[in-house]
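G., before I forget:
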Amino acid sequence: MSASPSSSSGGLAKAILRKPLVIGSGLVLIAIIVLAILAPLLSPYDPNVSDLASVLAPRSPEHLLGGDGSGRDVLSRLLWGARLSLLAGLIATVTAIVLGVPTGLVAGYRQGAVDAVGSWISDVLMSIPGIVALLVVVAAFGTSMPPTMIALGVLMAPGFFRLTRATVVSVRGELYIDAAKVAGLSGFRITFKHILAVVITPILIQASLTAGVAIIVQSGLGFLGIGDPLVPSWGSMVNDAYRNNSMAPQLVLWPGLAIGITVAALALLGSGISDVLNRTGSGASSKAAKGARKAVLVKDAQRPASEAVESRLVVENLRVAYPVADGLKEVVHGVSLEVKRGECLGIVGESGSGKSQSAFAVLGLLPSDAVRTADRVQLEEVDLLKVGRRAFDKVRATRIAYIPQDPMSNLDPAYTVGAQIVETIRAHEKVSRADAKARARDLLEQVGINDPDRTLAAYPHEISGGMAQRVLIAIAVSCNPEYIVADEPTTALDVTVQAEVLALLRRLQEARDLGVILVTHNLGVVADICDRVAVMKDGEIIETADVFELFADPQHPYTKELLGSTLSGSEPRSRVGDRAPAGSASETPATEGEER
Amino acid sequence: MTRPEILLQVTDLRVEFGSRRWGKKPFVAVDGMSIEVPQGRTLGVVGESGSGKSTLGRAILGLAPIAGGTITFDGRDITRPMPRQRRALSSELQVVFQDPYSSLNPALTIESILAEPLVAGGMSMSDARTRIAGLLDLVALPKDSLSRLPREFSGGQRQRIAIARAMARDPRLVVCDEATSALDLSTQARVIDLLLDIQEQTGVSYLFITHDLDVVRHMSDEIVVVNRGRIVERGAAERVVTDPQEEYTKRLLAASPIPDPVAQRARRAAA
């Protein structure tokens, strides 16, 4: 069946295998493994045979790395020692995985009593001091390596248990698990197919680190003289080198290097894999971004001086780009817009149209790797392209405010609502805490919160989404801004709450003569509150018009298609996807925008 | 015209989410809802967040704890099915969730995702491949999608994949839980078309759960309006939307802005 996790996570595996760090450390590890396997063939001497003539012998053609304190060939011991070290790492890691992963899967998936018992055992194991436990095992089972490494594996199993359990807990609420249940899969199959596929990569990372730790611990025990004296190990080689340190200091080099390189390769392999996992999309090269930003500054400096002072926010030829593997990818292609005081401009478009990027660019809130260029961004008399970062922050704080889409994630759950409003006010103005609090209370009343004192004292999780959006609007207007940029301010809200928030925005806009840029995908919201509308598609504004004109007589085919997609007033159960006007390109299914 | 046979009947359903601590009152998410879904028809369930509409759907699918009432599917009581019965039911009762991002396992290829319900139902992998090709056709996705991972697809395409998975074993009822809510307007329109096409071709019934009045009116034969765990109004789709009887339905309709500035502002002025 092709649905096994290993074959199906092929895309990720490919991405991991493209990473130089992973390739490099992987090759080193493979080389070490091959050398260890071939040790009986490659070693020039028996690693345990002493030759008095070779005691502390220097490097020579007969003994490439010389001889040790007992006259044994160092190279041979190094190769044989690799077998023991790698085997030690393998035994400990496999033990830890075998004990930790299945129990973690079951504990995370079933939760309840299984989870409680598993976590309790794991906690107990973690509280056992490792070295003491290992010495007890040595005392009880003798000095051979496997029992100590199995014991070490047991001690390290809680790491895997916790990792697996945490990953499972985070995915068990995902809808695809529910979908699998509805599809009739048994709990066992869901656990071992869906969930294991997700936890396998973090487990690989943990395994590479565990193996490294096991090799170090095993070497440490060997150095202490705990181990079968007839089995060569890197640890006992270090011990031998230590005893002969004054006469042959170079002896410590070889086992030291072997241990270091092996453990480092394991650690780098782990971190290489986790890098690929944690990489955020673009694979951005900040160098490219910096170069481009420099170019922008030059271009800005050459710009002619700004024109007369106007009471509006003007953006001309705004471009936003992000660094990708080969250069820059532009997502906003030369957007120009303006909004006057007391006016509401709607930017409407579908996801990926660049509407939010444009709004964030005006606010200067783009991610740090974004490259923004414009011929002009002017807030009344202030040229926002010319002012420095701090001045821009001040403008953003006092003259342009921002209302985000998701109110809940924009409030800090650790502080009360009141503390967050007071903090904002005090960050911008020198007022006493008591005055700021009075202002906060007043603001909450203005945004229509009936019981402001209770809301001030509440934590974000204690208030509803609509209430949270009112709070954010209160924060936005707390510094008496002239302009507001609102990014999908009602999208996360219920329709009745949306109506209230829109009414509030309209009231504030009229009372304070605010210029509002409202980014939305909802044509109903546009029709309700906007005076003018800019329609965006693929990073460009394709049409800007008065709201009544736009709905009555759309010019661009895409605007027509967009208006045609609304279901309001549609014939029930009719086809709407191809209801675009005749002659428009959208009638052929191949142009389906989402498929691009 | 003969009235179509009732496929799903839910009677006086209660769902409670108990607190672990004793003596604390459980939260009642669904407080005595009764619905009927006829064969080949669509019942729309509309309400706001916290109304219990999604919990109703999840209870029918066996994903929420049922405290009371009965659920009958095609004459069989499925209120508390045994695991074997639940698995048998999975060929007839399916689901399309809202979020096309979390409803597909990111680590599995499209082929594995679509094969899963088929293989779980005892189909051989080679038969499943044939069926999967047909499914891709049904939801108009390119053939080369099979070896790709969910993240290589847009939201609308992912929702098509989720629909294909739901349709894999020719179910008789599909619960669509906000199936179009996360999509762009034009994408939503195409997914709605797809759902209607499939219904026409296969005669599947839908339980269409959404907060969007326009969508529910467009999709449904009948609508129930839910609020705080209870059904406040029910009736033919067009009637509920054009002539609401209950205060809550009226409020809901009035709050939903009309995408037409003239009509919307006239309504606002009147309010």
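Residues 103-168 of chain B form one domain. The first strand of chain B starts at residue 6 and ends at 17.

More on Monday.
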